[in-house]
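We read letters as residues; the fold follows as tokens. A sample entry reads:
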Amino acid sequence: VLPAVDHNKIYYRDFRKNFYIEVPEITKMTDADVAAYRVELENIQIKGRGCPKPIKKWVQTGVNSTILEILRKLNFVAPTPIQAQAIPAIMSGRDVIGIAKTGSGKTLAFLLPMFRHVLDQPSLEEGDGPIAIVLTPTRELAVQILKDCRKFAKYLEIHAISIYGGSVV
């Protein structure tokens, strides 16, 4: 049994959560434009107040030029519907529950904002833990997400590993 942790006695460095800056092309969209675009994006549904408008292009995500170049090399032409709506919300520091079909781009929808957050953190020091953790319900999904993550990690000079039941650490 792990001992109880009193988080009030532990110093946690503040960290930035909101990275999203809406570009003029998106800002100019009226509520009617946004509603029509969401219908065009496979009729995506949102809940919550003040949800960001969906993006249309990768350059509107706010990720760095290295990530944009990787997306180009991997032939990701434009964001999928889940990516178009989830990325601005996650990059704004909001909680998101994204429900979409297998193969719809959910993994990239959370990995791109995660990379942006990771790259904004100070360098790790001896004894520091991980900067980001992705929890999955199955080993297979963990392996698939790691594979997708590594396509970017090697160029971003970050490390990604997968730990699941039965694996050697």
Observations:
- Residues 3 and 9 are 14 Å apart (CA to CA).
- The mean pLDDT is 95.
- Residues 139-156 form the longest helix (18 residues).
